[in-house]
Design brief:
This protein has a 7-stranded antiparallel beta sheet with strand order 4-3-2-1-7-6-5. 80% of the residues lie in helices and 2% in strands. The chain has 1732 residues and is mainly alpha-helical. The chain is flat and about 195 Å long.
Length: 1732
């Protein structure tokens, strides 16, 4: 028990211990987590404090690169914070977990978390602020860099656009314009840059950016940009004005030369007397006109340019204005317009003189031609003396005299024209009036002689005259006949009725004229018969044929008149129809208008009036229908009669008919609408009347005054009468209801109005009935018993009468009696309905009145009796209806049988007609019958249906009815079949008769045409042949068109035969006859066509052969002329005329000959009847044509030879005149200045171009002379040679004079150009010297650097002018070498220029050395101040006596002192640099040494020479040359080098003497080391540091030199020899540099990239791949240290000469300009004791 207790206690203790251990373990775990959390939080806080210190830094970067580096670090820090944020959140999450787990230190954990979160938030704010500050700083530095770039570019552009060089001639000015255009493009591209800079300033913060200062800078930049832009515009305007000025001067010179040349020609020109010479002068004037037009346009351009130059206000261009003034006062502007106006007046004057002389010569020529013409006609009349003895002679005489009459009329007209021309010329030339009138008198005398000769010849003919008179009358009659036929054959058609009547009158006049010529025709025939009777001569046979043709023409004239009369009659009828149709159209349009504007009335009376008006209008339309019908009928009648305008007439008729029908339909429709409107209005009026009646009765129904008992029964009776009236008027409402239903069913559009009115009426009627019933009930209640008794008595009496009527056995014996009985039955039924209602009311009253059995029994007896009479009444009605149906059916069957029997004889008729018209009439009748049968068929079907219904009801007369129906059915079937058979028979007959009719018409028409085709009439002449051919073509076309008709007949006949027509054989036979007749007609037509064509072609050929023979004879007269011309102009005119004559003859003649030969060949080949005669005509004509061509060829060769000879003489004379003229125009003036010389040179160039063209003429003349000398001999050959010699001598003299003149002008121009260049360069150098001397005194290092940059800009401008200076010197040398006549002046100018340039260079170098010295002094002062400040800052520490109180303090002091020692070691290098001598101190030491040397020389004069020689050797050894070596000992050195050192030198602005500058420069040149590789490359600076782009990234052309692991940059080899770096840039160290091909740069080719260790990166462009590879290899070698010098400069304590020390100092100072003074370790030198 005890043991168990102990064990239990032990277990309990163990468990307790175990629990305590677990609790302890958990507590320790929580403690570990807590301290781990505190550890992590402490680590985070430490990291946050560290970053806070970094973010709190005030360093923002001093430049763009530093700021970019700091911004990169900031981004790195932000990335680190982002990464740290996750760890921080994890730690905070652990803390929150512990807090949520209720850790024992939860409060501390929560406080620590909040504290850490606050610190982290502050860190994020610091980071954001730091980032903002850095971004603002970056924007600020970026703005500064961009602004610097923009300033530099604007200043460069300013130097370009401010140039005053405007060019010395047109070509140089054009080059400047192109250059200025490029510069303007660059300037315009910087405007958006300034805008971007403004945006950058706006984005900067005010705290760091100083916006006012930056905006001030931008304002300055913008003002400079505006200034540059304005200067750009001004320079552009100046260049354009100058270019326009030069162009204008050139144009003016060319115009004056042309005007002067043409004026000399016009002044020397005299009007010749011969016509040929005048034509030559006229040709020259014609060629002068286009030249004057061209010159006028050039002068207009010159004037426009002059006005623009004189009126344009361009500021600052004094040179252009001076040139304008000079030109304005010269003859260029003041006299050009005057000279041009004078020249035009001179041309007009000469042209008037020429026209006057030409008019005179043409008058004399016309007079001579007219004389010859009259004389020729006189000879022709004299040659007719032997004619007139026989008919042939008379006819020949007639033809000649007929042609003579036409010629005499033309001569008479010519004489009148000559008289007018003579009068005009006599007024213009009074001195020659006698000669002019004398010519006219001679012509008049010859003309009178000709008329007398003709008159005498006509009188001497005798008897032949009568024959001639007959022939003349015959010709006149034929001429009249032809004119009349032409007039009648006119195709003019009238367009109006007046025109038609006018043409009818004219045609009737022609009829009267023909009637008047009838006697002349008969007389002509009689005389012709007498003349040709018993005559066999060919001429009389021909005359007889003419008379026969005259007879035919007379008959044709009659027929043509008849045809024309018919045509005009048809046209007149057509115009009459048009007139009537227009009236009908107006009438129809008026009707349509009235119908379209009729409105619907809204009252019944108005509706009825409108209907009456419409009916009257339709009556008027019916009355006018006769007019319309007459128009339609007349039009159709004209069309049926074959009027020529049938189609138009039918169209018009159709339109009128359709319009008339449309108007009729519209009128009927309008009448229907009006009637419908009347019905509506009537319905509305009925409704209104019923409404009024209902309102009136409503007052009666509502009257309730029946209180007195004595009049109660009378009121009840009145009310019963009122109710009966109301019941009878119910029909009124029913009628309105019925009318409304009918109206709505017929006119749906009235449904809404009708429905509304009906609803209103029914509502009022219901109210009236309700009021009536109410009143009846009230009255009934008041008098019930009396009413009941009276009603029963009345009903009983009525039932007795009704019973007697019902029991009658009369049901009617026919249809009429049955209908009467049915009407009586309907009346009884209506009375029964009324009494039935009374019975019902009686039942109601009986129940209310009494309850006695007597009253009730009487009522029941009446009701029973009433019910018993209803069934007999209904049965009687059924009997009557059945009786009426039977009687009606019997009557209908009888009527139909009678109708069928009446039509049956017409359907069974066998009359089919014997012609087409009869058949058509029978077909119309049969069609009418069939339409009646078709319309009657529904009635027959109805009768048959009713018969079946009667038989089904079992009628007593069923058998009779069945028989009658069967008879009707048989008759109907028979009628239908007979009508269809008759239609088929009539159709077959109609087709056959139609075919017979068409065939008969075709045969008649073809028979008529056969008679015409078989005519043997032949044409007598060409006119009649053409007329006959035209007629035949019309007939032939009609025959061709008739083929369609024959084809249709054939098709119809085949169809009839194929359909087995009864007359098939007859139809086939008739069709074969038609086909044969048409084929025969076609053959006859072709034969007659062939005959007419042959006849017409023969007449055409005869006329063409006669015309060609006469034409050839006329041409032979011209081609046989022997005139060769008197001079060149005359020969040229003859040759041109004959050439045109030959061309026209060849072209026209060959075409005509080819046409005639082709016609003759065609006629012969086709076997013409007169082929032999045609062949004779062809042979004779070809022989005459060959003779003419031979004559033309001979004449052409003769004229060509004469033309060449005269042309040679003319060309020689003209060339001599032009050479002499050019020789006289060659001036001796050489010019006063450059402008005048340029003008003279341009004029001389124009002169040389002109004589170049003259030289080509001279060479051509030599060739012509050689050719002509070989062709001619004797005196002509000697004359040709003499002319050639004279021309060549004059030409050579002109060429020599021109060459001398050109050389003199070139020399003079070079001289003035040299003087201008010297003047411009001297002025420019004076300006440069002024700029050098006008610079301000510097105050600090930055101002010195700014002055040095400006001084370098001056140097750049000087270098830019080197090419111009070299060109000027070369030009002076060339002039001296050519021994110019102004050599002495040129030599003086050249010496002045070289001296001035040397003086300018010396002043620039003196100023440059002085600036370098000042820069070095200020740099020393700045560095010394910095060093002094550092020393002053360290003095308190060094003078401190604190040594520390314990070990920790001592250790801290030791660490601080070690830091001081490190800093002192760093500053030791800077102090060493400060201890070195400056250049000024070295120069002072050098000056003291020179003074001491000079004193020693003065003390030891005997040793002067030995002392000087070592010094000179030393100087030569150190690269310093003496003054005696300067190239001043002769002019040759000046001319070869372009420079000369002067012994007279101005004092330098620096305190150092000038000799020191020379020695320093010599020492620099002597210490140049040999380069590994050098050459010219294009260089671009890309990067100045790892993250900083270069401020100037443009390409520069520099000389690159690789030497001793360095690459230096120079402007050219001269600068490299002098040691002047490009823009004072230090050489680039190539140690550990990388160089490869710039494959990522695509803008240029052959580009390689150089990256050096300090972050700089350059791009270089070589000229080709080989050069690029060489440079890359050289850079790689230099980077690796290959072929580099082992010695890097002196070190340690050594003694150097002042010149060497100055050189070293200069190199060090050059490096100090770009890098900090304390950046690199300098070479150490020993210093004098006074600098320690």
């Amino acid at each position: 028990m005890v043991i168990q207790d102990r064990v239990s206690h032990l277990d309990f203790c163990y468990q307790e211990l175990t629990q305590l251990a677990v609790n302890r373990r958990n507590h320790l775990e929580e403690s570990r987590r807590l301290w781990k959390f505190f550890w992590d939080m402490a680590e985070e806080e430490g990291w946050i404090r560290e970053k806070e210190q970094i973010l709190s830094s005030a360093e923002h970067g001093k430049d763009l690169t530093g700021t970019m580096r700091l911004l990169s670090k900031q981004r790195t820090l932000e990335d680190e914070m982002s990464g740290r944020s996750g760890h921080l959140q994890h730690t905070i999450a652990e803390g929150h977990i512990m807090v949520h787990a209720q850790h024992f230190s939860a409060v501390k954990i929560q406080e620590r978390i909040q504290d850490l979160l606050a610190q982290w938030k502050e860190l994020e704010q610091l980071a954001a602020i730091r980032k903002t500050i850095l971004q603002d700083a970056l924007a600020m530095h970026q703005f500064q860099a961009d602004a610097d770039d923009a300033d530099t570019c604007i200043l460069d552009a300013l130097r370009i656009v401010s140039s005053r060089d405007l060019g010395h001639d047109e070509f140089s000015t054009q080059a400047l314009v192109r250059k200025h255009k490029d510069a303007a493009t660059v300037v315009s591209s910087y405007h958006p840059v300034i805008g971007l800079l403004y945006e950058q300033v706006a984005s900067l913060t005010p705290e760091d950016a100083e916006p006012d200062k930056l905006r001030g800078r931008l304002v300055g930049m913008e003002e400079r940009y505006k200034e540059v832009s304005e200067l750009t515009k001004l320079r552009k305007q100046s260049l354009q004005d100058t270019l326009a000025l030069y162009k204008m001067v050139t144009e003016v010179g060319a115009c004056e030369v042309w005007i002067e040349e043409k004026e000399q020609w016009l002044n020397s020109m005299e009007m010749p007397d011969k016509l040929e010479d005048l034509e030559v002068v006229q040709h020259r004037f014609e060629s002068l006109e286009p030249e004057m037009n061209n010159q006028a346009s050039r002068i207009a351009v010159v004037n426009q340019i002059a006005r623009q130059l004189l009126h344009r206000d361009h500021p600052g261009e004094k040179d252009i204005r001076s040139q304008r003034d000079e030109l304005n006062h010269s003859s260029f502007f003041s006299s050009l317009a005057t000279r041009w106006s004078h020249f035009r007046d001179l041309v007009d004057l000469k042209k008037e003189s020429l026209n006057s002389a030409l008019g005179m010569q043409n008058y004399h020529l016309d007079c001579n031609e007219t004389k010859s013409w009259i004389k020729e006609k006189t000879k022709v009349i004299d040659s007719t003396q032997e004619l007139g003895n026989d008919l042939a002679g008379v006819m020949a005489l007639q033809r000649k005299l007929t042609g003579m009459e036409r010629d005499l009329a033309a001569i008479d007209q010519k004489l009148q024209d000559l008289q007018d021309e003579a009068q005009r010329l006599a007024d213009e030339h009074p001195d020659q009036a006698s000669a002019i009138n004398g010519q006219l008198v001679e012509i008049s005398a010859i003309w009178e002689e000709l008329k007398d000769t003709l008159k005498n010849r006509e009188e001497s003919l005798g008897e032949a005259r009568k024959l001639q008179q007959f022939l003349r009358d015959l010709d006149d009659f034929q001429s009249w006949l032809s004119r009349t036929q032409t007039a009648i054959a006119s195709e003019d058609m009238p367009n109006t009725l007046a025109d038609a009547e006018k043409l009818m009158c004219q045609h009737e006049g022609l009829r009267n004229e023909i009637h008047n010529y009838d006697q002349d025709y008969q007389k002509m025939r009689e005389i012709g018969h007498m003349v040709t009777q018993n005559q066999t001569d060919a001429q009389y046979v021909f005359l007889r044929q003419r008379l026969q043709a005259l007879h035919v023409g007379w008959n044709e004239l009659q027929a043509m008149w008849e045809n024309r009369q018919d045509l005009l009659a048809q046209s007149h009828a057509y115009q009459m129809f048009l007139k009537d149709s227009k009236q009908a159209e107006a009438l129809l349009n008026n009707q349509a208008y009235i119908l379209a504007h009729t409105e619907m009335p809204i009252m019944l009376e108005a509706a009825e009036a409108a209907i009456r008006k419409q009916e009257d209008f339709m009556t008027a339309m019916d009355a006018n229908e006769d007019k319309i019908s007459s128009v339609v009928e007349s039009g159709r009648r004209l069309a049926s009669h074959g009027n020529i305008n049938s189609e138009r007439i039918l169209e018009r008729v159709t339109w009128v008919d359709v319009r008339h029908k449309k108007n009729m339909e519209a009128a009927v429709e309008l009448l229907i609408q009006l009637k419908d409107n009347r019905d509506v209005q009537k319905f509305l009026q009925d409704c209104q009347e019923l409404t009024l009646w209902i309102n009136e009765k409503m007052l009666t129904a509502q009257d309730m005054t029946y209180d007195e008992a004595r009049n109660l029964h009378s009121k009840w009776l009145k009310h019963q009468a009122f109710m009966a009236e109301l019941q009878s008027n119910r029909k009124w409402l029913d009628k309105i209801q019925k009318d409304a239903t009918l109206l709505v069913s017929e006119k749906l559009e009235t449904e809404r109005v009708v429905t509304e009115q009906l609803a209103l009426l029914h509502r009022m009627w219901a109210e009236l009935e309700s009021s009536t019933q109410t009143k009846a009930q009230c009255l009934f209640d008041a008098n019930k018993a009396e009413l009941f008794t009276q009603s029963c008595s009345d009903l009983d009496q009525w039932l007795v009468r009704l019973e007697g009527q019902i029991q009658s056995d009369d049901f009617g014996k026919d249809l009429t009696s049955v209908n009467i009985l049915l009407k009586k039955q309907q009346m009884l039924e209506k009375q029964v309905e009324v009494r039935q209602r009374e019975v019902v009311e009686l039942h109601t009253i009986g129940q209310e009145v009494t309850d006695t059995d007597h009253g009730d029994g009487r009522r029941q007896q009446v009701e029973k009796k009433f019910q018993e009479l209803l069934e007999p009444l209904c049965r009687r009605k059924n009997f009557l209806v059945a009786s009426r149906e039977v009687h009606q059916f019997n009557r209908d069957v009888e009527d139909e049988i009678l109708w069928v029997k009446e039509r049956l004889p017409l359907a069974t008729s066998r009359e089919h007609g014997h012609n087409l018209q009869a058949v058509q009439l029978l077909m119309k009748k049969n069609q009418t019958l069939q339409k009646e049968i078709q319309g009657h068929h529904p009635r027959i079907d109805d009768i048959l249906e009713r018969s079946r219904s009667l038989l089904k009801d079992g009628h007593s007369e069923a058998d009779v009815t069945l028989q009658r129906v069967a008879d009707l059915r048989l008759l109907w079937v028979q009628l239908t079949e007979e009508a269809e058979q008759r239609r088929n028979r009539l159709e077959k007959t109609h087709k056959a008769q139609q075919y017979y009719f068409d065939a008969a018409e075709a045969e008649v028409w073809m028979s008529e045409q056969e008679l015409y085709m078989m005519s043997e009439e032949k044409a007598k002449d060409e006119q009649s042949a053409v007329s006959m051919l035209k007629k035949h073509q019309i007939v032939e076309q009609a025959v061709e068109d008739y083929a369609e008709t024959v084809h249709m007949l054939s098709k119809t006949s085949r169809g009839l035969v194929a359909a087995a027509h009864p007359d098939s054989e007859r139809i086939s036979l008739r069709q074969s006859q038609v086909d044969k007749l048409y084929a025969s007609l076609k053959d006859l037509s072709e034969e007659r066509q062939a005959k007419l064509d042959e006849r017409l072609r023969l007449f055409h050929l005869n006329r063409e052969v006669d015309d060609v023979e006469q034409w050839i004879a006329e041409r032979e007269v011209v081609a046989g002329s022997h005139e060769l011309g008197q001079d060149y102009e005359h020969v040229m005119m003859l040759q041109e005329r004959f050439r045109e004559f030959a061309r026209d003859t060849g072209n026209i003649g060959q075409d005509r000959m080819d046409a005639v030969n082709r016609q003759t060949d065609e006629l012969i080949n086709c076997g013409h009847g007169d082929a032999a005669t045609v062949a004779e005509w062809k042979d004779g004509l070809n022989e005459a044509w060959a003779d003419l061509l031979e004559l033309i060829d001979t004449r052409t060769q003769i004229l060509a030879a004469s033309f060449e000879l005269h042309k040679f003489y003319h060309d020689a004379k003209e060339i001599l005149a032009r050479v002499a003229d050019k020789r006289q125009k060659l001036p001796n003036e050489l010019g006063r200045d450059q402008n005048t010389v340029d003008l003279l040179q341009r004029a001389h160039i124009t002169f040389e171009r002109d004589i170049h063209a003259l030289g080509m003429q001279v060479r051509q003349l030599q060739e012509d002379a050689t050719r002509l000398q070989s062709a001619y001999a004797g005196d002509k050959a000697d004359d040709i040679q003499r002319q050639e010699s004279e021309v060549l001598a004059a030409w050579n003299d002109l060429l020599d004079a021109s060459d001398r003149r050109r050389l003199l002008l070139l020399d003079t121009g070079d001289k003035f150009r040299f003087f201008n260049m010297v003047r411009d360069l001297m002025m420019w150098m004076d300006h440069v010297v002024w700029l050098i001397q006008a610079q301000e005194q510097p105050r600090d290092v930055s101002s010195v650097e700014l002055l040095m940059n400006q001084h370098q800009g001056v140097k750049a401008e000087v270098d830019a002018r080197n090419d111009t200076l070299s060109a000027c010197v070369d030009l002076g040398k060339a002039l001296l070498a050519n021994k110019h006549k102004a050599s002495q002046e040129i030599k003086e100018k050249l010496l002045q220029l070289t001296d001035k340039r040397k003086d300018m260079i010396d002043k620039w170098e003196d100023r440059w050395e002085w600036l370098r010295l000042v820069l070095e002094v200020h740099q020393f002062s700045r560095d010394a101040g910095v060093a002094e400040a550092w020393l002053l800052g360290q003095e308190p520490y060094l003078s401190s006596k604190e040594v520390g109180q314990n070990v920790d303090e001592v250790e801290k002091l030791i660490k601080r002192h070690e830091a001081f020692e490190k800093s002192a070691a760093t500053w030791e290098e800077r102090f060493s640099a400060l201890e070195r001598l400056t250049t000024m101190e070295l120069l002072e030491v050098r000056r003291q040494q020179e003074q001491e040397e000079a004193e020693r020389k003065t003390r030891r004069p005997s040793l002067e020479t030995p002392a000087v020689q070592p010094q000179e050797q030393s100087n030569n050894h150190n690269g310093i040359s003496s003054e005696q070596d300067s190239p001043q000992n002769g002019m040759a050195g000046v001319l070869m080098n372009g420079l000369a050192d002067s012994s007279s030198k101005e004092p330098s602005p620096a305190p150092s003497p000038e000799s020191g500058r020379k020695k320093k420069k010599s020492s620099v040149a002597s210490t140049m080391v040999t380069s590994q590789l050098e050459g010219l490359l294009n260089r671009k600076h890309q990067w100045e540091g790892p993250n900083k782009k270069a401020s100037n990234r443009s390409w520069h052309h520099v000389l690159c030199v690789i030497s001793k692991q360095e690459m230096g940059f120079y402007k050219d080899s001269k600068a490299a020899a002098q040691g002047v770096a490009y823009h004072s840039q230090l050489p680039v160290s190539l140690k550990d540099a990388t160089c490869d091909v710039a494959s990522d740069y695509k803008k240029k080719k052959h580009v390689f990239k150089l990256r050096v260790t300090d972050g700089n990166q350059f791009l270089f462009q070589a000229k080709d791949e080989e050069e690029m590879s060489a440079w890359i290899q050289a850079v790689i070698n230099a980077s690796a240290g290959l072929n580099a010098s082992a010695a890097n400069g002196p070190s340690g304590d050594l003694t150097v000469t002042p010149a060497d020390e100055a050189q070293d100092v200069r190199k060090e100072k050059d490096k100090e300009k770009r890098f900090s003074l304390f950046g690199k370790k300098k070479h150490e030198v020993t210093l004098p004791s006074n600098r320690k």
